[in-house]
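Q: Convert this sequence to structure tokens.
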Amino acid sequence: MDDGEQLSALIGSVYDAALDSTLWTEVLKRAADFVRGDAAGLLSKDCLSKYGNAHYHVGVDPRYMQSYLETYSFFDPMATLPLFDVEQIVSTVDLVPYDEFREGRFYQEWAKPQGFIDAANAVLEKSVTSCAYFSVMRRDSQGMVDDEMRRHMTLIVPHVRRAVLVGKVIDLRQAEAATLADMTDGMGAGIFLLDAGARIVHANAAGHVLLRAGDFLRAISGRLVATDASIDQTLRETFASAGSGDDALGVKGIAVPMTGADDERYVGHVLPLTAGKRRSAGARYHAVAALFVHKAALEMPSPPEIIAKMYRLTPTELRVLLAIVEVGGVPQVAETLGMGATTVKTHLGRLFDKTNTGRQADLVKLVAGFASPLTNG
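A:
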């Protein structure tokens, strides 16, 4: 199977996992093979506690996965991943200088014993306090993340993101795909099943509420129409593409922004229904795609992200800054981050220069000011 055939089959299985989460393990295995990786996972990271969770994973020994959840998630370099854009492909060297990574506890005690040397990661969703991301790790035999791996990751990340977001909206972990439309009336999101011409063949209760409001979505002669002409064109192209299969859909419709009355923000996600486990749900209603419309989650930059941008801090400098606030002095920071004390002092000096401070107490006060809406000035 060449890359094109492998990609097409992989995209289809990714969308099937949106309806049946038990498929994610097999999907991750196929994704790792496609990008020439050795292990993969769908994970989340809490930006405040630094706790990481692997929701689905493949290629990591269960004992090491347990130790990651209990201990080593606090030391991995992913704490600064939320600073990067959604869907941006980020390798280890983008997060932390590689020499520092190799000196740290995460590499020495967790990655190195398993032979892992690098990882390609992409943020799928982020909020004030956390982020969800897709990660594919490589061992020595595959080498460091290179341009070819980044290219392959770029091809699949938008589809993984759409499937994760749609799965989050519908939460049908135990449901058969054929019952999709029957089980949606109690959901808060507006859900529409549509044919290739954007004609509505089914809408749930929340969807009918949106149509009756006639705000940013309307039904005209049975066809779903967005009041914004550019959004309407995007939706029409997306539904037409969905009728030609998963690979024809490409990256269209991953996130379609819409604006309602009083500038309320909504987002729509499209799930094609023409292949795999989704086919039965679509065929039952002669639909080629499902559109999920819900209010956009509030995604404000987190205080660390704001600090990093304001003072032009590198990911490592930000890690040191946050560690100083959380654990104390240079020796404690060095132990927590798995760095040498000299390295921590070097970063600390740069922090003083960039923030125009001269004491660790000033850095703590600076961070506290960003964390609270009430500052002492």
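The longest helix spans residues 147-170.
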